[in-house]
Amino acid sequence: MTKPLTTTNHVDNRAATASRRAISLTDLWFTYYNGTTAVRGVSLDIRKGEFFGLLGPNGAGKTTLIKTLVTLLKPTTGHVTVNGVDAVEQPVAVRNSVGYTAQDTSVDPELTARENLQYACKMYRVPQVERADRIADLLQLVGLEDVADARADTFSGGMRKRLDIATSLVHRPPLVFLDEPTNGLDPAARLRLWEHLREINAQGTTVFLTTQYLEEADHLCNRLAVIADGELIARGSPAELKQQVGGDTLEITLQTTTPTDVARARRAVLESDHLGEDAHVGLTQDGLVISSPRTRQIGTKVLVALEERDLSVTQFNIRSPTLDDVFLTLTGETFDETHQEKATLSSTEHVNEEVNT
Ligand code: ADP
Questions:
Q1: Most CB within 10 Å of its CB: which of 11, 89, 129, 141?
Q2: pLDDT digits (tens, 9 = 90+) for 134-150
Q3: 333-336 contacts: CB < 8 A, separation 24 or more?
Q4: In the chain, at which residue ranges do the beta strands (DSSP E only) sit?
Q5: What's the pLDDT tens digit per position in 102-120?
Q6: Tell me, what's the pLDDT at 344?
Q7: The domain containing residue 314 runs over which residues?
Q8: Which residue has the higher pLDDT, 77 or 319?
């Protein structure tokens, strides 16, 4: 006989689900004093142990969202729970249960790596007897054991970033927030940092990372959300998101790549009857990119349409979709296009942040 589902079971199930969640956001909105609404109705659940990526162009709302999660900003409306604790009601408890690496490093350049970690241990009140071992483990985790006693001002940008991340882990938080950790690093330093981030996650820490790099999100994260203009416009694993494109991508290199010619080429493709409603055309550095479920069928026709308008194609390539193509499908623009527009718009200084104490 089937056992009836009792109220107690419902409560138990809810409690079990809640205990598996590292973060729960419900209809979060954030508006700055100057009226800019940076986060618009975001709802999101992140499970413990995930390597989660929030991907979006400059000015999309990533930092604002992360600051509400680490309680530096108080939501205008909405509900934020971190490690099972309400972030508005108990900000101190939330801060004690997370690590946070902001975009600007907080490493003291005049101290050695070890001294920076000792200072962080003091701040987080790590018991004296545990400090030496914990510092040794963290230096190893971020690959700085050989330079433990060198001053941080002799370190490269990548080394400082790794030290900064280590300082945010001294109190062994189950959840760590990293705001664009690889920004400004050269490709080799970025790859190195990726290895350490993977290792941190492999040791059981939930990672919440923001990034403007599609490639980074693709490599590191097992789940992603894409944010644009403060709204989450997609979420899923990198593979699930790529499936949304539904077909291959055609990359076209044009002989002349002046903005006028590339814009003319885009119009020519859009005005040709070959695309269908489900195709998207974006601009790249040297031509166009077209995402469509029927790329292979329409490819040649598109090339002919361009030649007919005296727009010579020097190269074309059909490939599997990337996250960049997902962005194009979702927003109608390539990531680079949106990125450049946003960078221009958000180049003004902001001073009036609200601090949640
Ligand atoms: P991202 O981290 O994705 O680059 P941000 O969260 O920094 O985006 O910014 C989101 C929006 O909020 C942008 O329009 C930005 O100009 C605006 N903004 C950020 N900080 C402030 C502030 N202190 N005061 C007013 N507007 C701000």
A1: 141
A2: 999 999 989 999 999 99
A3: 333/282, 333/283, 334/282, 334/283, 334/284, 334/289, 335/57, 335/214, 336/283, 336/284, 336/285
A4: 21-31, 37-47, 51-55, 77-82, 85-86, 98-101, 175-179, 206-211, 223-228, 231-236, 249-254, 280-284, 287-291, 313-319
A5: 998 889 999 999 999 999 9
A6: 55
A7: 246-320
A8: 77
Atom of ligand 1 nearest to the CA of 230: 10
**Residue with the nearest Cα to atom 16 of ligand 1?**
346
Shared-domain flag, residues 217 and 312: no
Q: How many domains does the chain have?
A: 2
Of 242, 265, 292, the residue that ends a domain is 242
Distance in angstroms (rounded) separating the CA atoms of residues 162 and 181 = 9
The residue to mutate among 33, 64, 68, having the most atoms of ligand 1 within 8 angstroms of its beta carbon, is 64
Q: What is the CATH number of the domain that holds 148?
A: 3.40.50.300
Q: Please give the structure tokens belonging to residue 82.
A: 């971190």
Does residue 54 have a pLDDT over 90? yes
Atom of ligand 1 nearest to the CA of 348: 16
Spatial separation of the C-alpha atoms in residues 333 and 284, rounded to whole Å: 10
Pairing of strands 98-101, 249-254: unpaired
Residue recorded with tokens 């659940």: 45
